[in-house]
Amino acid sequence: MDIYRVIKEPHITEKASLQKELNNQISFKVDRRATKVEIRQAVESLLNAKVLGVKTINMRGKKRRLGRNVGKRPDWKKAIVKLAPGENIEFFESV
User: Fold this and answer.
1) Which pLDDT belongs to residue 93?
2) How far apart are CA 81 and CA 94, in angstroms?
3) pTM
4) What is the DSSP letter of 86?
5) 63 and 72 Cβ atoms separated by less than 8 Å
6) For residues 63 and 70, is the Cβ–Cβ distance under 8 A?
7) Phi-psi region of 87 (alpha: psi -120 to 50; beta: other; left: phi over 0)
8) What digits encode the pLDDT tens for the residues 65-84?
9) Which domains are delineated in the chain?
10) Distance between CA 56 and CA 47 in Å, rounded?
11) Distance separating alpha carbons of residues 6 and 2, to the nearest angstrom
12) Nearest CA to 21 among 94, 83, 69, 95?
């Protein structure tokens, strides 16, 4: 799989911010077919950071309702990447 299609976007939440500060872990939304090895290679090559480990989670889309109509958000995959000590990736620190 192409490394530019593996990582879709960073997943930025309060929990992800705490993980980044305390454990040096960063969360990403990734392609649902991506493996841990592909995610590791994509992060190391695109972001120039040493990766110690990758954890993946298949997230189910939430059910949403608008009046009588019931819909569902799409399912997606989340990857939590543990970086080596001293490594840092900046997303929105300057804002």
Assistant:
1) 61
2) 22
3) 0.86
4) T
5) yes
6) yes
7) beta
8) 999 999 999 999 999 999 99
9) 3-83 (3.30.70.330)
10) 18
11) 7
12) 83
> What tokens appear for 47 in the block?
């972001």
* Residues in the chain, overall count: 95
More confident residue, 4 or 94: 4
DSSP string, 9-25: EE---HHHHHHHHHH-E
DSSP 77: E
Compute the CA torsion angle 29, 73, 34, 82 (nearest 10 deg).
30
Q: Express each pLDDT in 7-57 by its tens digit.
A: 999 999 999 999 999 999 999 999 999 999 999 999 999 989 999 999 999
Burial of 29 (0-12, 13-18, 19+ CB in 10 A): middle
